[in-house]
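Hey, can you fold this one?
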Amino acid sequence: MWGGVIAAVVLSIVAGTALALTATSLSSEAEEVLAGVLSLVAAGLVTWMIIWLARTARSLAGHLRDDVDRVYANKAAWGMFFLAFFSVGREGLETALFVWAAAGSAGQGALPLVGAVLGIAIAVTLGYLIFAGMSRLNLQVFFAWSGALLVVMVAGVLSYGIHEFQEVGWLPGAEDHAFDVSAVIPADSWYGTLLRGTIGFTPNMTWLQVGTWVAYVAVVMPIFLSISRRRTVAPSDRVSASESVSVTR
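Sure. Predicted structure:
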């Protein structure tokens, strides 16, 4: 199992490194096109993941335990390796792509890298505490809060991709700014970088960027919240409710 986890982590690191090296070797225009395309891909993948987790948060741990029990029953050591590899690798590649896109939207400098390292360190620590039995985590509540935050972050990544396409002339409106608050929130300040890297806010966003950000949140957030609310009612509670209705009738 640990061999699969380590292999997946290595693959994710290699993928992230390859993205960074590829971007630095391209021309300015090609880099903007790559950033725009990968931002859209990252937004699509993470959106799918958010909805999937909202649907499966309650039963996720059970499904993984069932898969592990099935592999043990078949006494397939390689099966355990591949189960761990694909389970971790899928999320690792999505994380590498999303972090790369989010870091790009935050601009150049060390702050995005520091934030990414801190976030991964917190995730690893939390995972170890759960594995060691020193912490219990309600996955449904955790995914509800983290999913809502991710919706806002993905909107920012999507807005960044729109900006890159406007820069290369693929989309119109590069000069049509909705606002310019550079005097209040300098783009190179630490809080300006934080806003860009988290919610995709820049001091001089275009109308198309703002419209894309608002439209994405307005569509995806209600869907996510609706699914999360439905999943808060346990199946046993729904059965009891239906039985009560039947008795009443």
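The radius of gyration is 21 Å. Let me know if you want another pass with a different chain boundary.
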